[in-house]
Amino acid sequence: MILVTFINRQILRLSVPNIVSNITVPLLGLVDLAMMGHLDNPIYLGAIALGSTIFNVLYSSFGFLRMGTTGFTAQAFGARLQEEISLILYRSLIVALALALLLILFMEPIQWLSFKILDGSNDVKVLAREYFFIRIFAAPATLGLYALHGWYLGMQNARIPMILAIVINSINIGLNFLFVVQLGMTSDGVALASVIAQYSGLILAIFFLSTKYRHYLKSFPAKLIFQAKALREFFRVNSDIFIRTLLLILVLAFFTSRSAFISDEILAVNTLLFQFFFIFSYFADGFAFAGESLTGKAKGAGDMPMLKLTIRHLFYWGWGASLLFSILYLFGIKPLMWVMTDNTGLISLAMEFKWWVILLPIASGAAFIWDGIYIGVTASKAMRNTMIIASLIIFLPAYYLTINSFGNHGLWMALNIFMISRGLLLWYLAKSAVYR
């Protein structure tokens, strides 16, 4: 009983700050859109939409920097390998800086390809390019923060990432008001605010590192940092996570593009309804992040009973959150829709598909929790393979087999089947991948 209480406290100690951190992200996005939405020309709003889409895809693709670092660090922490903890930090930061410099070096072809893919008027694209060429210089800070965020979580510390998220987004919001409202800037002001906020966050993250974790900042010979075996394992795990993340992004992008293919009204409705999934994901990810830290620690310590008990209670919390959100959406989806839009036609059309949204938290809850567990124990190959199967062999056929008969219902059905299949596949492979 004492051990169960301890595990639940550890889950909440790590998950609650992560949930708070996650919630600050959409709040910043809303402020960015509100700043541009109140200007006299809608092209500024379009510029932010296009520019943000590019960076969302770019940075989501590099999410492995945080996830991989969390798993490796948590296992080293559990095994009490002090030197390895320091080396993982250095390797992650070096890789983050190298990737950031590559983004800046290749910013011209990146923007050219991005604006070939994304549609928009010439005026919108001009402003979006201006936004892009300002914000791209935040890449070293943004990717450096990914590595530090992952390292802190691996060290069982979710408070520092929470503080960083709150400070970064608060500075960003404050500078938005200064640059746009006070100084009369437009989308360029929003981009500049993001750059300054990111570097402010990086400075604060380094401050925490140099004070609370100073004893890990030791000097090592280059050959130890760049040890071939360690780097191969680092890149193997992170390349698997990259493929898994990229496929997930493509599935979500496919959902949006197919919504637009059906009709403009369906695109608007699905965009609004999908916000309910994003809201749930912020909470579910909080427990997933806790899972990364705790299962990695147990795995590193070689404590299989603790690993199994932790996983069991992670699912208790995860299923509880899933059920809670499904009940919330069952009774509150229509009032919540009114918060996002006052278009009665869109709300009426959205209600035809509400049951898919109500089902989605239950359908996807297991996938979120298993993701955190697999990242914690660095079972990246199984994560990658299950995502390949779920996206290419299950999701796409489910869509193409149902879209002609069921229309938008078929699209939502395919998404729910995709989420359920991910959870089931990860559960099936857990015996060999997690409990090995």
Strands, helices and their partners?
Blueprint (H helix, E strand, L loop, with lengths): L1 H36 L5 H19 L2 H15 L3 H24 L1 H11 L4 H14 L3 H16 L4 H24 L4 H26 L9 H4 L2 H35 L1 H38 L2 H37 L3 H7 L3 H23 L3 H27 L1 H26 L3
Helix pairs in contact: 1-2, 1-8, 1-12, 1-13, 2-6, 3-4, 3-7, 3-11, 3-12, 4-7, 6-9, 7-9, 8-9, 11-12, 11-16, 11-17, 12-13, 12-14, 12-15, 13-15, 15-17, 16-17
Tell me what you see in this structure:
There is one protein chain. With 436 residues, the protein is mainly alpha-helical. The protein has 2 domains: 16-226, no CATH class; 237-436, no CATH class. It has helices at residues 2-37, 43-61, 64-78, 82-105, 107-117, 122-135, 139-154, 159-182, 187-212, 222-225, 228-262, 264-301, 304-340, 344-350, 354-376, 380-406, 408-433. The longest helix is centred in the middle third of the chain and has 38 residues, at 264-301. The two termini are 26 Å apart.
Features:
436 residues, mainly alpha, 88% helix, 0% strand
Outline of the structure:
Helix content is 88%, strand content 0%.
Number of helices: 17
- Fraction of helical residues: over 70%
How far apart are the first and last residues' alpha carbons, in Å?
Answer: 26 Å
Rg result: 22 Å
Task: Return the domain count.
Answer: 2
Number of E-state strands: 0
Strand content: under 5%
- Provide the structure class: mainly alpha
Low-pLDDT runs of 5+ residues are none
SSE topology string: HHHHHHHHHHHHHHHHH
Major pleated sheet: none
The gross shape turns out to be globular
- Please tell me the overall pLDDT: 89
